[in-house]
Write a structure and sequence with these properties.
The chain has 13 helices and 12 strands. It has helices spanning about 10-25, 35-40, 55-60, 80-95, 130-145, 165-175, 195-205, 225-235, 250-255, 260-265, 270, 280-285, 295-310, and strands at about 5, 25-30, 50, 70, 100-105, 150-155, 155-160, 180-185, 190-195, 215, 225, 245. The protein is α/β, with parallel strands linked by helices.
Length: about 325
């Protein structure tokens, strides 16, 4: 791979992918809607071509010889029902027209409820939420498309530039020394992935020709409770305030006034009965999954957020 295009390049996983690719000497077209953010993140990177764009309008003309298209783009929850399938169809069309390969960043929604064991790629997918059913339909679109693709399931993100995530909202409040809220029961263990780890694993997949035509699981470091997560944050920031718990009832009330929070309610079950990914397939066929310990990942994330706050982030 000499050149790639990253859709959603200003997002958490998208930006991590850009930096992982250029670290390997691969040229990147960073594609996103927000040009100011693109410039802030990548304006000084020689191997990055910044491309302000919209998947629905100018994606195909922006590919410009990229051999692989990384789809790390996201749509607001309240647009999923109407726009997710057309969004994927535009990406598939651009992939075909440019004779490229397609690598898709996905979440765990299509797996549905946890049955108590780590899920493998060949486990039956029986989503019970509308968002899970939409994600499964997108997988089917890829299978039907005949494009060379691979799809990777990830747990929740945290890391530099991973904004609009549950952990990001928590850290933003803590760094400002404001009252912070943790979503869900703080004693329940959940899984998170440090975005630079996810990007490393995904680029390794993208470089393996035999990985295409399949779905893959890329798990995080391990399970961690909110209490444990907060203990690392407090150790590094000396944050002393009590951290409250955002319950389902609280989010439902907020959802009366906020459409995206209203849409989040159906996914709250993942905070109550978390689902964990099995990465055995990846490790048997690709290699060791990068796994940064939470303590170090949290430190790196907070360091980045502090630098960004002072205008020194890169």
């Amino acid at each position: 791979m000499k050149k790639a295009l990253v859709i959603g390049a200003t997002g958490g996983m998208g930006s991590a992918l850009v930096y992982e690719l250029i670290e390997r000497g691969i040229k990147v077209i960073a594609f996103a809607r927000n040009e100011r953010k693109l410039q802030r993140f990548f304006g000084k990177e020689e191997l990055v071509t910044i491309q302000k764009g919209d998947v629905f309008h100018n994606l195909s003309s922006s590919v410009a010889g990229a051999e692989v298209i990384f789809h790390a783009g996201a749509l607001p929850y309240d647009q999923w029902q109407e726009k997710q399938e057309p969004f994927m169809e535009c990406i598939i069309k651009a992939t075909k027209e440019n004779k490229a390969k397609l690598v898709v960043v996905d979440n765990i929604y299509a797996y549905g409820r946890s049955k108590g064991e780590k899920v493998r790629e060949n486990d039956e997918k029986s989503p019970h939420t509308k968002k899970g059913k939409i994600r499964l339909r997108l997988e089917h679109l890829l299978e039907e498309s005949k494009v060379p693709y691979l799809l990777a399931h990830f747990p929740d993100f945290y890391g530099p530039r991973a904004e609009n995530t549950q952990i990001d909202y928590l850290l933003q409040s803590i760094i400002k020394n404001k009252k912070a809220m943790f979503v869900g029961n703080q004693t329940i263990k959940r899984e998170y992935i440090y975005t630079p780890d996810g990007a490393k694993a995904l680029v390794e997949l993208a470089l393996c020709g035999e990985a295409y035509g399949e779905t893959w699981n890329i798990p995080g470091y391990s399970g961690i409770s909110g209490d444990e997560f907060l203990s690392y944050i407090r150790e590094y920031t000396n944050y002393q305030k009590r951290v409250g718990t955002a319950t389902k009832t609280m989010i439902r009330l907020i959802g009366i006034f906020d459409r995206n929070m209203k849409e989040f309610i159906e996914m709250f079950y993942l905070n109550e009965v978390p689902l964990f990914l099995d990465g055995t397939k990846y490790e048997h066929r690709i290699g060791k999954i990068p796994r940064t310990p939470y303590k170090e990942g949290i430190k790196q994330t907070i360091d980045y957020m502090k630098r960004e706050k002072t205008g020194n982030a890169s």
